[in-house]
Amino acid sequence: MKSIYTLIILVFCGSVRISAQTITTSGLSYSPNTLNVHVGDQVTFNCDFSMHPLQEVDAATWTSNGSTPLNGGFSASSGTTLTVPMTQVGTRYYVCTVHVSSGMKGRIFVTSPSGIEAISSVAASTYPNPVSNQLHIIIGRETDMHYTLTDMTGRTALVADQHVGAQRMLTVDVSGLADGAYILQAVSADGTTSVSRVQVAH
Fold this sequence. Notes:
The chain is an all-beta fold and 202 residues long. Helix content is 2%, strand content 50%.
């Protein structure tokens, strides 16, 4: 029997402070080369990108010391400063495209921030999860919602806008998606954001 994944829906509260963290270079290494941040934080790379071109990659490319760009990922080949917002839970992988074979690469682990509370006013629950066709999200009130569904490599699999009416339920068609884990991010009309993990299994 397939295990049931508990869906945790989180929202940024007004009291949550955005943190800014910095990554620099030290020889042929990033410092630090492993960073733990929260959703909503910003990470700034302070490097000479003409000497150390920066590229975000997927997990497989990172492991194999490759430099194939991640579709939609961050990159820089000139200048000295790049600030990247951490918008969703997951791991972000990056390399120096010139020196990756020498081990110049790093990871950013993005987790749910402290001070974030489970919400009832925007999204209370979803079902079913795992899901094969229609994912239903119970919303606490009427609102316009913009949502994106991304796979664990950061690739956008689905994006749409939908009005949540009096029924207070948002239905997302995932029948065309490949099996696997996805991150659902939904933003209401007032800017309130919820992030959740969804397992698709046909």
